[in-house]
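In the laboratory, one determines a bound structure by crystallizing the protein with its ligand and collecting diffraction data. In a computational setting the workflow is compressed into a single prediction: the sequence and the ligand go in, and a structural description comes out. We illustrate the idea with alpha-L-arabinofuranose.
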Amino acid sequence: MIDRRRFLSDLGTAGALLASASWLDAIGYAQIVRGPARAFIRPARGRADFDRRVLGAFLEHLGRAVYTGVFEPGSRLADAKGFRSDLVREVKELGVPITRYPGGNFVSGYNWLDGVGPKAQRPTVLDRAWNSIETNQFGTNDFIDWCRAVGTEPLLGMNFGTGTAEMAVAYVEYCNVDRGTKWSELRRSHGYEQPHNVRYWCLGNEMDGPWQIGQLQSREYGRKARDVARQMRGIDRNVQLIACGSSGTNMPQYLVWDREVLEECFDQVDGISLHAYYGNTPALTRNSTARYLAMNLDMDRQIHEVAAVCDYVQALRRSSKRLWLSFDEWNVWYRARSGDAVDGRRGFAPRLLEEVYNLEDALLVGGFVNTLLRNSDRVRVACLAQLVNVIAPLVTNETGVLRQSTYIPYAWALRYARGRVLDVGVEAETYPITAAGLQADFARNDQVPFVDVVATHDAQNRQASVLMLNRDLDGEREVVIEWGDVTPARVLACETLTGSDLKAFNTFAQPRNIAPQRLEPPPASPRMTFKLPARSYTVVQLATM
Ligand code: AHR
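The predicted complex, in structure-token form:
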């Protein structure tokens, strides 16, 4: 947390300090009356490099994500394994560090055995989560092959819905045991002599949700997680296990679920999951873009709340173990969320959850990236939900891949955020938001800083980066960055994402409606003033001394 006395003494050059409102304080921001925002880098306090898994993604057997997204044998774009090679190129270029698979709701009715072995013998089944036909032509081994092709690490989900503890641990044995046991030999007979050594595992998905196949009560779930986790560690000591947290801040048992689950399985797990989807809707924002662009601060709040529960249970147990958080589903999702958009009508690869993302969505995704990075001391894993076709930055058709608007901030984070996340204090002008009429978990009377700033420093490669959101819909905002003990030498890149139409989006016919633009940077110096265009997300990369 911030050193308050130092913070206050640092303030004052750009305007008078008014108050430290609730969430401003929690993220190290202070409110000023007038003037440019000031972002000052505080001296390093030994923070380690952030875990790049915080910039992961999610691939579910859902709609066209796997079939025709990742895997389309017969397509002229497919490679020998049936993988869409254009998508492989895109994902490889993005550099997604970890990918969660195979669900999501799908996993709670999934029998992993159906998806391994000779393809001709794999059964076609009905996926009850999305009411779709699942041919099982793509399964765990195919996913691992795909992970290798694109350079991502697998994060496997387990079926805690219809699945038994026995089949869950058999899955770990199948994937991770070298040889000489029933399940490891089965893998070898399927052509995979070497173990996959999958390290990260989700113990079920959204098990508190009434929509979830096999929904459980918190303590039932916690005990099952404890049992499976214990057995898993017996098979492989190196696994990292993620318990299911509340599936959203609007759940009636939000935080109570997390506490009760952890009271049952704290000692056996390493992390707990958080999920959140956001939208510019009457209930969440009153369709106000100003409120919408503040929603990454709701994500900050959720992180702090769930972390507090983890710490509470840790203290109760007098444990020295600090759980980390896995924000393994996050995104904007509000348009394709009901009716035909979520019902596959027993079709194969139906068009489900095909959300079209516009400029304002992309700006908010930039905000989410900032939130995840500034909380990366606690959030070790996070997955943009999802990667392709289903609420995704990438969309395929028969001719190629489209980059949606949200691709841009995600790709920037992957490319530019490197090394250590710097400790940034920000003083900025703010605008008010009000609670009236909003869904309870988003009903807040608060002040929102016009700018949101995150910075990273890769000391080894002598590079620093800054990611900045300007929430001001009408005007340019100046941000003065005071670099402290980081010494900028040269500006390597400076790009912004902005536009006059917040509702504009990319299409296959017009793929550059939303595209980055070059922004004129100030010269590299210990104090740099950036002029952020109205409604923009900006990235800067610097060489440092
Ligand atoms: O990502 C889409 C769905 O949202 C997932 O299947 C589920 O876990 C969540 O409710």
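The radius of gyration is 23 Å. Keep in mind that any predicted model is a hypothesis to be tested, not a measurement.
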